Amino acid sequence: MEVKSSEPIAEAEIKNILGKRKETEELAYEQAQVLEHAERFAEAAPAKARKLVEEIRKNEKIPAETAMKIVDTMPKRIPTLKAILIKEKVELSDEELDAVLKLITK
Q: Phi then psi for 16, rounded to 5 degrees?
């Protein structure tokens, strides 16, 4: 299989894409495992996930992959959000952290 392009997408979109593919063809083992994980943990609808990522990305300090992780995990508290950001080496002020958390908890 040849990879023609690559871009990060949220679990909600993965769930949508693989769910549609499952209706028409048999999924490979890895695809089935990813779909099962996405069905279990994806909290937002694909359109909402895309919108949240766009809103989070308005803060230029947050890369696309980190915004995806934030949307995928949907942290409810500042310490959880900080844990994601620390792992990705992103530093935000308290005001920026509050703004991101407010976007997610809308």
A: -65, -50
Q: Is 32 left (phi over 0), alpha (psi -120 to 50) or beta?
A: alpha
Distance (Å, rounded) from C-alpha 67 to C-alpha 4?
Answer: 23
47 touches 56 (CB < 8 A)? no
| pTM, full prediction | 0.80
Give the residue extent of every domain in the chain.
11-41, 46-104
46-104: what fold? DNA polymerase; domain 1 (1.10.150)
Q: Each residue of 20-47: pLDDT tens digit?
A: 999 999 999 999 999 999 999 888 888 8
SS3 content of the chain, % helix, strand, coil (to 5): 65, 0, 35
